[in-house]
TrEMBL record:
Its main location: membrane. The chain crosses the membrane at residues 7-26, 58-76. It is a multi-pass membrane protein. Signal peptide: none annotated. InterPro entries: SecG. It is found in: Cell membrane; Membrane. GO terms for molecular function: protein-transporting ATPase activity. The keyword Electron transport does not apply. It comes from Bifidobacterium oedipodis. This is Protein-export membrane protein SecG. One of its GO terms (biological process) is protein secretion. The keyword Cell inner membrane does not apply. Keywords: Cell membrane, Membrane, Protein transport, Translocation, Transmembrane, Transmembrane helix, Transport. One of its GO terms (cellular component) is plasma membrane.
Length: 82
């Protein structure tokens, strides 16, 4: 394996973990199983503060980076570059 391919594989693992954490940090929108067990008492569920907007931006950015690295790894594999 080339150093670039190993680096991209490490990057995609780190991005995957980071993306998972960012998704888990999002506020629930309700209507799921949490409402069934008393979790539906949240207030201001429709509003989104600055922190939530920034969390959304970071989640989208990390997801786009993850997709780009995944495509890069696929192209490297397809054309035997690594």
């Amino acid at each position: 394996m080339t150093a670039l391919k190993i680096t991209l594989e490490v990057v995609i693992v780190v991005l995957s973990c980071l993306l998972t954490l960012l998704i888990l940090m999002h506020k629930g929108k309700g209507g799921g199983l949490s409402d069934m067990f008393g979790g539906g008492l949240t207030q201001n569920a429709g509003t989104s503060g600055v922190a939530e907007k920034n969390l959304n931006r970071w989640t989208v950015i990390i997801a786009l980076l993850w997709v780009a690295v995944a495509i890069g790894l696929d192209l490297m594999t397809k054309f035997n570059l690594g």
